[in-house]
Design goal:
The chain has 615 residues and is of the alpha+beta class. It is 39% helix and 17% strand. It contains 23 helices and 20 strands. β9 and β10 form a beta hairpin. GO terms for molecular function: transferase activity.
Length: 615
């Protein structure tokens, strides 16, 4: 609950299809494209706060003039930092030419990022370091415009070493740390070959058809070529999201449907989903086609994306999160013995608010049913006061916790550090009747459990409730991810630690030995990718047994108030999010062979005490 997860980069792509003079005349500004790129990125800022970058390509430049520009930032507010600098450049031009914004040709010649092709990226550092060099887009430069490439994406690859081998490249230290560097080199390798056959007019469809089948991972990528061609492509399983909008003025693509709708003020049905394995390919004249680059495979769009990462302003995502909370209501009612009178409902953090509404709706449905039954049972034996008391009865909802400013745990001693962590949230006093009320608090997911134990359970216990029930709108997170979310160490997961604890308690540690031996055997045979052996760790136990152990693990020793944990079921997850069936975090059912390899390596790292990534 409230564990920080590094995750999900965001992509923004715009291709202007009209001259700059058109946008000046119709929209009143020559920087229409840049303004929209800024909005498109800001509306996805939830996807990346470690850094941002943009690239721009200008069409029809004279030989000798630069046509590909890039700016990146890892400042605390990277999007604002980039566009503030562009704004300063405009102000500098206006010092000497006050009306230059009324002259599109001059603006294009003097403002580096006033290009017809625009690519923006928001970065969460899932791989590599957080210095600015790792921010997308990456670029490859060449004297031939058609061999210049700017590339950015929302993805992780698990076979970067193999990719470098395929193109006979010995990567440097930088390339080894970045999967985008591997992807860039492979795409550029095939781009250069295609350019030899068709100078400055490479067939992008052929390039992508040769390069992308080599990538093991989930991805949405966008690329700009120096000759004015461009593309946006999605992986064959549809693991990472991609949406697009096209009219006669612009071609737009982004990671979030709601961001496009808001930025361009268009309806839901006007923004289309880019389907798995397909690419939007745009030529230098602004003509586009949607091509099937690789054959689509079983759709495994990431469900964690819908639960946790995507902006809830999208109407489909909003309804799905409501459903996630609603599905949990029956289990919660059973745990509180249907005692709504003495139960308070709340949520932590704010991202769980929509699931909370769904949970409360389920409670209200039950309460309304009880009201009707009670009133009918009275017959004529009631007074106005008695009737009013029954009709006005409501679900008790409170804002139990408020997140304070981010406290810096600058004190190094563990005891003092834990004391500081407790105060990340402020508790709302006077909301709970001590010893009488059960407190039910919902979150979108429980990953590590660290914040729960060190901060939230302690904080909630100060209110002295009769019982604390922690509810997760996601199922138990049991397995690492390798497709864009930084959850690659098994030992980090509270569900895995609970399973290990149960094995030790029941003298079943031989299971760990057997799993370890089996994985080592697969490693020797080069077969780590063939099977997820770690499933055997969880097999002896029911979901409820693991949940009970998790509740014990997140309860500090000095807290004597009962703590229970309720998780979403896999079945209800799929019922709530029917188009996002990717559930490998919860089930271990990976969509690509690289996932099995990662989970098995993660187990080896855990057993050998290596605190490193599984890929």
């Amino acid at each position: 609950m409230s564990d920080e997860i590094k995750h999900e980069c965001g992509l923004a792509y715009i291709r202007l299809r009209k001259p700059f003079s058109y946008y000046l005349q119709k929209h009143g500004t020559v920087t229409y494209g840049l303004n929209k790129l800024y909005l498109l990125m800001e509306k996805q800022h939830n996807r990346g706060q470690d850094g941002a970058g943009i690239a721009a390509v200008k069409l029809n430049t004279e030989p000798g003039n630069p046509f590909l520009h890039r700016m990146r930032s890892n400042a605390p507010q990277p999007i604002a930092d980039i566009f503030f600098k562009i704004g300063q450049e405009v102000q500098e031009l206006e010092k000497y030419q006050p009306d230059i914004k009324q002259h599109p040709g001059l603006m294009k010649g003097h403002l580096p990022f006033l290009g017809e092709l625009l690519l923006g990226h928001l970065r969460y550092g899932t791989q590599g370091k957080n210095n600015v060099e790792f921010c997308h887009p990456f670029i490859k430069r060449d004297l031939m415009p058609g061999k210049n490439l700017a590339l950015a994406g929302n993805f992780n690859l698990v076979n970067t070493d193999e990719l470098f081998d395929l193109i006979n490249m010995n990567p440097g230290d930088f390339q080894k740390q970045s999967d985008l560097a591997a992807m860039m080199e492979v795409i550029h390798h095939f781009l250069a070959k295609e350019d030899e056959l068709h100078p400055n007019a490479a067939d992008l469809k052929k390039v992508l058809q040769k390069a992308t089948p080599l990538f093991d991972g989930g991805y949405t990528i966008g690329g700009l070529l120096g000759n004015g061609s461009s593309f946006v492509m999605r992986d064959a399983h549809g693991i990472r999201p991609a949406y697009f909008y096209i009219n006669d003025e612009v071609i737009v693509a982004a990671s979030e449907r709601a961001a496009i709708r808001t930025t361009f003020n268009v309806g839901e049905n006007e923004v289309m989903e880019l389907m798995p394995g397909k690419a939007i390919i745009v030529d230098d004249a602004g003509n586009y086609s949607i091509e099937q680059i690789v054959e689509p495979k079983e759709r495994r769009a990431c469900s964690f994306e819908r639960i946790y990462f995507s902006r809830g302003s999208d109407e489909k995502i909003y309804r799905e999160r409501i459903a996630l909370g609603h599905h949990l209501s029956q289990t919660v009612l059973e745990r509180i013995n249907n005692d709504l009178k003495n139960t308070i409902f709340s949520y932590i953090p704010n991202t769980a608010e929509v699931a909370f509404y769904g949970l409360v709706k389920g409670m209200e449905e039950y309460l309304n049913k009880i009201k009707v039954e009670r009133i009918l049972s009275w017959g004529n034996d009631f007074t106005p006061d008695k009737l009013e008391e029954m009709i006005t009865r409501k679900i008790r909802q409170e804002k139990i916790a408020i997140k304070d400013v981010k406290l810096r745990t600058f004190i190094t001693e563990d005891a003092n550090r834990n004391e500081m962590v407790q105060h990340v949230y402020d508790v709302t006093y006077g909301t709970v009747r001590p010893g009488e009320d059960t407190l039910v608090v919902i979150d979108d997911s429980i990953v590590r459990g660290t914040t729960l134990k060190e901060s939230i359970v302690r904080m909630l216990a100060r209110l002295k409730p009769k019982k604390i029930i922690v509810v997760s709108s996601a199922p138990q997170i049991r397995y690492p991810d390798c497709y864009g979310i930084d959850m690659s160490k098994l030992g980090d997961f509270i569900a895995f630690r609970a399973a290990i604890a149960l094995l030790k308690e029941r003298n079943m540690e031989h299971v760990l030995t057997e799993v370890h031996e089996k994985i080592k055997e697969l490693a020797r045979a080069g077969q780590l990718h063939t099977e997820n052996v770690v499933r055997q760790v969880y097999k002896p136990f029911s979901t409820e047994e693991i949940s009970e152990k998790i509740a014990q693990l997140i309860t500090p020793a000095e807290i004597h108030i009962p703590v229970e944990v309720i998780y979403q079921t896999i079945e209800d997850l799929h019922d709530s999010c029917p188009t996002n069936t990717g559930d490998w975090y919860f089930t271990g059912n990976y969509p690509t062979p690289g996932g099995n390899k990662v989970v098995n390596k993660a187990f080896l790292n855990f057993i050998e005490g290596k605190n490193v990534r599984g890929y």
